[in-house]
């Protein structure tokens, strides 16, 4: 009798356990006693009264779900308002909201890289951009991390349409892409530049308007950016921003827009409220950056190896996957939640703790977090 068709799954599970790479779900309570440096609520807006009230009002007004795809019944006035205000805030002509940042990245890459085109992708890009490259009909060439000269070399091998794809702030180490250099390389060869600003919106640029705005690239005719609504805006969903004719093209060609149910009204309402709050309180962006800088300075002063943050992510190296897991667990036992990144989530194979700075952290909480991390490492 033949064995189970899923025996290979059990073997992979055993291999993960041997390598210390098993991942588990850990549901959190509504009122967690942990100090959170693991989530991506950079501006502390996920539980802000205005944001949660807007989410509740949107659910009562429009219903619990979008009821259909955006092209059928899933577009509401909230979606249109969010798109208009998001584009205006970030400095782009138009915007299109998706059910997730992942879906937005898949849409941008696949719809803008048809058959015969070249996609030049940074080696440190997020999984959603990588998956977009895999699904696109164009040919992908992966180049060295944050290297405009490598981008030029790749573009020089192709005579047809091309698009360069990069995070603005890389999610593992929190380092920023050389956007001006990338844009110059693209313009030299007539290529488009698609940037994922998931970790830049709300943190970088004037009042948190994002990395493209800070680099002077917002609104350029050859630039498209994607954002998530689930980090600085404390909600859920994603969006693509760019020239109006590019956004119109996505409405007609992006499969993750056409065939996916629209973003829930509660999430759209929450994101819109958070965006308006950020416009009123631009100092939140600067505070998030300041907290990240302080975390880095104090941890490295104690001998820990951490990458200097360009936004709100602070990456602290660990000796091994097993020790990273133990370090994170010891922090949790001491009341601090931190991220733990291990292969295959990290492209360089180096395990680390990933800390996310929050604008709403008090100086006392910052002291406590630093103390716990240092003591747990010892």
How would you portray this structure in words?
There is one protein chain. This protein has 378 residues and is α/β, with parallel strands linked by helices. The relative contact order is 0.17. The mean pLDDT is 95. Helix 3 packs parallel to helix 11 (265-280). It has helices spanning 7-19, 49-62, 77-90, 101-112, 127-135, 148-155, 179-189, 211-214, 244-253, 255-258, 265-280, 283-301, 321-333, 363-377; strands at 35-37, 94-98, 118-122, 139-143, 162-167, 192-196, 223-228, 238-242, 313-317, 336-341, 352-356. The strands form 2 sheets. It has a 7-stranded mixed sheet with strand order 2-8-7-6-5-3-4, with helices on both faces.
What is this structure's SSE topology?
Layout: H1 7-19, E1 35-37, H2 49-62, H3 77-90, E2 94-98, H4 101-112, E3 118-122, H5 127-135, E4 139-143, H6 148-155, E5 162-167, H7 179-189, E6 192-196, H8 211-214, E7 223-228, E8 238-242, H9 244-253, H10 255-258, H11 265-280, H12 283-301, E9 313-317, H13 321-333, E10 336-341, E11 352-356, H14 363-377
Parallel strand pairs: 1-10, 3-4, 3-5, 5-6, 6-7
Antiparallel strand pairs: 2-8, 7-8, 9-11, 10-11
Helix pairs in contact: 2-11, 3-11, 4-5, 6-7, 12-14, 13-14
């Amino acid at each position: 009798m033949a064995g189970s068709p899923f025996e290979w799954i059990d073997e992979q599970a055993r291999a993960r356990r041997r390598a210390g790479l098993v991942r588990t779900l850990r549901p959190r309570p509504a009122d967690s006693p942990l100090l959170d440096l693991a989530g991506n609520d950079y501006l502390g807006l996920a539980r802000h009264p205005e944001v949660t009230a807007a989410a509740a009002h949107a659910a009562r007004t429009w219903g619990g779900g979008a009821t259909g795809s955006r092209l059928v019944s899933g577009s509401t006035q909230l979606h249109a308002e969010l798109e208009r205000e998001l584009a205006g805030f970030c400095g782009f002509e138009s915007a299109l909201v998706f059910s997730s940042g992942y879906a937005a990245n898949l849409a941008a890459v696949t719809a803008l890289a048809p058959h015969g085109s070249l996609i030049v992708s940074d080696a440190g890009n997020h999984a959603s951009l990588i998956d977009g490259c895999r699904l696109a009909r164009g040919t992908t060439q992966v180049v060295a991390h944050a290297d405009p000269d490598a981008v030029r070399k790749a573009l020089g091998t192709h005579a047809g349409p091309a698009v360069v794809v990069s995070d603005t702030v890389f999610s593992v180490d929190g380092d920023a892409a050389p956007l001006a250099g990338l844009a110059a390389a693209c313009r030299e060869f007539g290529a488009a530049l698609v940037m994922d600003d998931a970790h830049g919106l709300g943190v970088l640029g004037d009042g948190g308007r994002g990395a493209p705005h800070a680099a002077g690239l917002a609104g350029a005719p050859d630039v498209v950016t994607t954002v998530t609504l689930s980090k600085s805006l404390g909600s859920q969903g994603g969006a693509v921003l760019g020239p109006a004719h590019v956004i119109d093209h996505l409405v007609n060609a992006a499969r993750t827009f056409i065939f996916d149910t629209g973003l829930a009204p509660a999430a759209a309402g929450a994101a819109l409220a958070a965006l308006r709050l950020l416009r009123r309180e631009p100092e939140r962006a600067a505070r998030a950056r300041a907290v990240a800088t302080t975390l880095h300075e104090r941890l490295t002063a104690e001998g820990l190896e951490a990458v200097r943050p360009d936004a709100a992510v602070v990456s602290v190296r660990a000796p091994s996957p097993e020790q990273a897991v133990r370090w994170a667990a010891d922090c949790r036992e001491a009341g601090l939640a931190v991220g733990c990144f291990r292969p295959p989530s990290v492209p360089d194979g180096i395990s680390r703790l990933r800390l996310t700075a929050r604008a709403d952290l008090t100086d006392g909480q910052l002291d406590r977090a630093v103390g716990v991390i240092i003591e747990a490492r010892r």
